[in-house]
């Protein structure tokens, strides 16, 4: 999910992550821990990032769950990804 970089978004992301854990059959303790961790990571981005949005990706493989929270290098739906090349050359 991609959310605006606002405090309320961290609460929403945490609630959705917790609900996903419950949907996968995990207990309330694991769901609560996931909710808290996603909210903490999102809160860090809200406080320290200058990006207009952040993305939370939860993926499950077997008994493992991976959480990626990023404020850059992602593409909003319907947009093409762009890359920026940096050069050590300076104009003459």
The run of helices and strands is: EHHEE
Secondary structural class = alpha+beta
Proportion of residues in helical segments: 40-55%
* Shape type: globular
The number of helices is 2
Mean pLDDT over the residues: 81
Radius of gyration over all CA atoms, rounded: 16 Å
Low-confidence stretches: 81-92
Secondary structure: number of strands: 3
Strand neighbour order, sheet with most strands? 1-2-3
Distance between the termini: 45 Å
Largest sheet: 3 strands, antiparallel
Per DSSP, what share of the residues sits in E-state strands of 2 or more residues? Answer: 15-25%
Question: What does this molecule look like?
Answer:
The protein is an alpha+beta fold. The protein has two helices and three strands. The chain has helices at residues 7-23, 28-48, and strands at 2-4, 53-61, 64-70. The chain has a three-stranded antiparallel sheet, covered by helices on one side. It is globular. The N and C termini lie far apart (45 Å).
Name its key features.
single chain, 92 residues, alpha+beta, 41% helix, 21% strand, globular, disordered C terminus
Q: What's this entry about, in short?
A:
The chain is α+β, with helices and mostly antiparallel strands and 92 residues long. Helix content is 41%, strand content 21%.
């Amino acid at each position: 999910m991609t959310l605006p970089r606002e405090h309320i978004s961290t609460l929403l992301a945490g609630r959705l992550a917790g609900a996903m854990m419950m949907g996968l059959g995990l207990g309330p303790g694991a769901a609560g821990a996931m909710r808290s961790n996603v909210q903490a990571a999102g809160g860090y981005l809200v406080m320290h990032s200058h990006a207009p949005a952040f993305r939370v990706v939860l993926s499950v493989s077997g008994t493992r769950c991976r959480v990626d929270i990023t404020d850059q290098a992602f593409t909003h739906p319907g947009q093409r990804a762009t890359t920026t090349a940096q050069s050590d050359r300076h104009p003459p």
